[in-house]
């Protein structure tokens, strides 16, 4: 009995060490991964399969190198998160009042995370889950300029609806990157905008008229639900991208081509967001 | 012969690829979306191969690194060594570049894998006998050119202590003119000479310094494995210093000879040096490769030894306690043994939810395959990890790949003269007519002109039943502005002909939608099922929907499959209507079984006895019920 209560040096040392080290170890175990990533803004890349999301993500990572060759890509199954830098030649909006000749500006490279999401219809829930995460500064919705817009519009509608539902939180910018505009059948960005708006108008109408889904429980929930599911301003009429500004989403359409390395517009947009 | 080999990460980046013949990237895309995302198994393949446009594809996955290794070859050939190649390449690739792959936030890795891969292919082909000839010829051919540009080989090799590995280009050391006798590197990937040319950091590597450093780190690790190689470096001259001397020598040779003779002279001298130093016979160009083969073998053995060591440590008692701790804290690498118990529990759970046994087993198998080798998250037990994975898998199965917006499709079709034709098929007594009238009610509410065609000319009372429905719907929709009519031709006539006449009639009268009711049929009765093909040809429905009961159990898989294949080549079902969902509570496993068996989405759920009791499927709701 005595031996239990009498202090002995080795046991004391071990006990002290344990008390000191266990919290520290736990801290490292839990916060190690999240600490570094916390302070850097994040951009999400969404869009249908085959529109060039992964290539775009890789292109941004290559960043300043001109004529850099982007690796070939295949259909993605998981997200790809890359740390990218904006070259000094692009002026980020946060440093717009600084002198161009400021030597510190030349050296400084704006860092941000680019998160690529899979575009396959079965895996879109991954992208939607990423949307809800904090620290998302902007979205890039990549569209194949030569693609059928009726299919694209559906995904875009869901994304916009998700953004509308999170309204009231911080402002978010959305770039519709009309990729592959070097193709012969490619449409100009303005035309794509018009087509998408028209298509979304039809989608939201047919959604409103459509059947209730099996998740809705009672009759009471239905009315409240209907209002939430209506994209843009209430009432009939055309859907316009400008309506999204009311809920803090700023939509920009810009054309370009990853394959040809023509991404200047998109990079400038990034600069404005940072 | 192999057409193409690719190492793709699950995030979609091609880390390394080797193309022997141009292969459309859509082939591998199809593999990924069909096998990995949609989980479509081609009949008879048993998940071992995948055929697409005259190509056969085989693959291996490395879940811990998120890699897929794909080999593409022509279906005409019967290559027996592909499986072995995939296995060894997987081991090699991970042994060489595992460190780089573990880093977060990286997309591409610095890899110079070509030589290793070549050596494996050659060895396996030799083992199999036959097609190696072309390659051997290539090697012999490449030999001369190798001598032509040989000067850098001894220097750089000794510096790196092995041939063909990513050599760092030292800015200080004199680099002999590669261009003199070297054709473009990519033109003949088999020659040893190219190895050095490729060894220099390619412009691909964006993170020049960083990547190269990582590479060096990887190499030091490798050196331990390739001990035999050191032997020849050591018994020649003192290793670090003489690379300079040899390089000097080569430079001297260059200055002395004229530009054309020089390469030949150099070649002669070099051959001499190489023979001396390396102490290996120069029978053909193979001696360089032999070293590589040895290194490759050493690496493979090391990987095997690692695997064994891992297995043996896992079984210890102390390791058991540690594993228990890991199970609580997370970060445990999952093995097949760990997963056995939770997987069996999950299988039981799914079966209790009325998922057909076949579907449940396959879901569990794919999830298990995708989990082996993965690490559990922080403070996540194996059970939770398995549960989350099953949940994700179920969600993936139920999520449709195409748009299910029926209204929009009908709206789009309205501009054409032909009406939108929907036909409904199914086993006897599942509720075809009832669900047809529910859909009709829904369409009427949206002010469409609907024609119901009574093509069940077999069961007595079927036409009368539809007539009652039509009368009710007419009364209900009068205020709403919809129009509904019944097209009937009595009993005993051929259903396909009636369907065609109904569509023609609707076209003439300006109807928007035609709903065709068919006779119920047993899915394993060839005689009854065969008439469906003619029916599809005559009526040309835009949508063929199959009604399935939520009550049905194991049979659901076969029902879905047989109906799906009954419409002939090039036509399949477009969607399911799962009826009587209100009668089963949370046991909605039939949804999973049917969708899993065919990959066709669920369009509607029947949830009650009234016309308005029709719902679209909310996937998250369904998954929640299934996992509860």
Automatic annotation (TrEMBL), chain A:
InterPro entries: P-loop_NTPase, SRP_receptor_beta_su. GO terms for cellular component: endoplasmic reticulum membrane. It is found in: Endoplasmic reticulum membrane. It is a single-pass membrane protein. It comes from the Eukaryota. GO terms for molecular function: GTP binding; hydrolase activity. Keywords: Endoplasmic reticulum, GTP-binding, Hydrolase, Membrane, Nucleotide-binding, Receptor, Transmembrane, Transmembrane helix. It holds the Pfam family SRPRB. Belongs to the SRP receptor beta subunit family. This is Signal recognition particle receptor subunit beta.
UniProtKB/TrEMBL annotation, chain B:
Residues 221-231 have a biased composition (Basic residues). The chain crosses the membrane at residues 587-606. Residues 157-266 are annotated as: Disordered. It is a peripheral membrane protein. The keyword Transferase does not apply. It is found in: Endoplasmic reticulum membrane. SMART domains: AAA, SRP54, SRP54_N. SUPFAM superfamilies: Domain of the SRP/SRP receptor G-proteins, P-loop containing nucleoside triphosphate hydrolases, SNARE-like. InterPro entries: AAA+_ATPase, Longin-like_dom_sf, P-loop_NTPase, Sig_recog_particle_rcpt_asu_N, Signal_recog_particl_SRP54_hlx, SRP/SRP_N, SRP54_GTPase_dom, SRP54_N_sf. Belongs to the GTP-binding SRP family. PANTHER family: SIGNAL RECOGNITION PARTICLE RECEPTOR SUBUNIT ALPHA. This is Signal recognition particle receptor subunit alpha homolog. The lineage of its organism: Eukaryota, Fungi, Dikarya, Ascomycota, Pezizomycotina.
């Amino acid at each position: 009995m005595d031996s239990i209560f009498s202090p002995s040096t080795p046991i004391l040392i071990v006990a002290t060490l344990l008390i000191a080290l266990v919290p520290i170890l736990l801290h490292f175990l839990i916060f190690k991964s999240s600490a570094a990533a916390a302070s850097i803004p994040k951009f999400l890349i969404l869009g249908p399969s085959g529109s060039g999301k992964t290539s775009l993500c890789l292109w941004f990572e290559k960043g300043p190198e001109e004529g850099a060759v982007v690796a070939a890509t295949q259909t993605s199954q998981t997200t790809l998160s890359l740390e990218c830098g904006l070259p000094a030649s692009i002026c980020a909006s946060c440093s717009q009042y600084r002198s161009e000749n400021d030597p510190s500006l030349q050296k400084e490279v704006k860092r941000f995370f680019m998160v690529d999401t899979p575009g396959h219809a079965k895996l879109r829930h991954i992208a939607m889950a990423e949307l809800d995460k904090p620290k998302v500064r902007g979205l890039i919705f990549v569209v194949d300029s030569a693609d059928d817009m009726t299919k694209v519009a559906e995904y875009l509608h869901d994304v916009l609806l998700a953004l509308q539902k999170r309204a009231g939180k911080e402002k978010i910018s959305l770039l519709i990157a009309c990729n592959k505009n070097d193709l012969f059948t490619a449409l100009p960005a303005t035309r794509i905008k018009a087509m998408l708006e028209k298509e979304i108008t039809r989608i939201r109408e047919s959604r409103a008229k459509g059947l209730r889904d099996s998740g809705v429980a009672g009759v009471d929930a239905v009315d409240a639900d209907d209002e939430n599911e209506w994209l843009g301003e209430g009432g009939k009429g055309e859907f316009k991208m400008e309506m999204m500004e009311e809920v803090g989403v700023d939509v920009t359409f810009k054309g370009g081509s990853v394959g040809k390395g023509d991404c200047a517009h998109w990079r400038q947009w990034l600069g404005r967001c940072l | 012969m192999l057409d193409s080999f690719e190492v793709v990460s699950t995030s979609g980046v091609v880390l390394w690829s080797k193309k022997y013949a141009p292969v459309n990237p859509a082939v591998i895309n199809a593999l990924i979306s069909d096998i990995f995302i949609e989980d479509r198994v081609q009949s008879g393949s048993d998940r071992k191969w995948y055929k697409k446009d005259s190509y056969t594809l085989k693959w291996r996955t490395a879940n811990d690194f998120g890699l897929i290794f794909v080999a593409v070859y022509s279906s005409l050939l019967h290559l027996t060594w592909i499986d072995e190649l995939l296995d060894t390449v997987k081991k090699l690739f991970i042994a060489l570049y595992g460190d780089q792959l573990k880093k977060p936030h990286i997309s591409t890795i610095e890899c110079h894998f070509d030589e290793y891969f070549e050596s494996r292919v050659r060895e396996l082909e030799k083992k199999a006998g036959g097609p190696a000839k072309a390659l051997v010829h290539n090697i012999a051919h490449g030999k001369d050119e190798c001598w032509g540009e040989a000067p850098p080989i001894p220097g750089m090799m000794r510096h790196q202590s092995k041939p063909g590995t990513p050599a760092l280009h030292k800015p200080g050391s004199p680099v002999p003119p590669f261009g003199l006798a070297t054709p473009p590197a990519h033109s003949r990937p088999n020659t040893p000479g190219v190895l050095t040319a490729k060894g220099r950091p390619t412009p691909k590597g964006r993170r020049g310094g960083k990547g190269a450093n990582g590479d060096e780190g990887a190499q030091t690790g490798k050196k331990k494995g390739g001990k035999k190689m050191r032997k020849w470096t050591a018994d020649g001259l003192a290793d670090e210093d003489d690379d300079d001397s040899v390089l000097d020598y080569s430079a001297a040779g260059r200055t002395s000879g004229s530009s054309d003779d020089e390469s030949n002279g150099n070649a002669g001298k070099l051959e001499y040096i190489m023979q001396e130093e390396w102490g290996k016979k120069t029978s053909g160009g193979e001696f360089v490769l032999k070293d590589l083969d040895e290194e490759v073998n050493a690496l493979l053995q090391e990987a095997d030894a690692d695997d064994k060591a891992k297995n043996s440590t896992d079984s210890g008692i102390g390791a058991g306690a540690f594993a228990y701790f890991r199970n609580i804290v997370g970060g445990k690498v999952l093995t097949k043994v760990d997963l056995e118990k939770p997987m069996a529990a999950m299988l039981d759970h799914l079966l209790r939810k009325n998922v057909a046994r076949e579907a449940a087993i396959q879901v569990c198998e794919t999830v298990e395959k995708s989990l082996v080798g993965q690490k559990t998250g922080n403070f996540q037990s194996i059970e939770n990890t398995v549960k989350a994975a099953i949940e994700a898998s179920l969600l993936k199965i139920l999520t449709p790949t195409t748009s299910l917006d029926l209204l929009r499709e009908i709206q789009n079709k309205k501009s054409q003269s032909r009406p939108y034709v929907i036909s409904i098929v199914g086993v006897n007594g599942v509720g075809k007519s009832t669900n047809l009238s529910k859909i009709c009610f829904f369409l009427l509410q949206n002010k469409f002109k609907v024609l119901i065609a009574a093509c069940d000319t077999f069961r007595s009372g079927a036409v009368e039943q539809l007539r009652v429905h039509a009368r009710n719907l007419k009364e209900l929709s009068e205020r709403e502005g919809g129009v509904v009519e019944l097209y009937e031709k009595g009993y005993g006539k051929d259903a396909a002909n009636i369907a065609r006449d109904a569509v023609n009639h609707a076209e003439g009268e300006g109807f928007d939608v035609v709903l065709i009711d068919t006779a119920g049929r047993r899915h394993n009765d060839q005689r009854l099922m065969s008439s469906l093909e003619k029916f599809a040809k005559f009526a040309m429905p835009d949508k063929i929907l199959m009604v399935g009961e939520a009550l049905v159990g194991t049979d659901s898989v076969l029902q879905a499959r047989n109906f799906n294949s009954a419409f002939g080549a090039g036509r399949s079902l477009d969607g399911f209507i799962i009826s009587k969902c209100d009668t089963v509570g949370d046991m909605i496993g039939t949804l999973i079984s049917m969708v899993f068996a065919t990959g066709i989405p669920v369009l509607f759920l029947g949830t009650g006895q009234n016309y308005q009791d029709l719902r679209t499927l909310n996937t998250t709701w369904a998954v929640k019920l299934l996992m509860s």
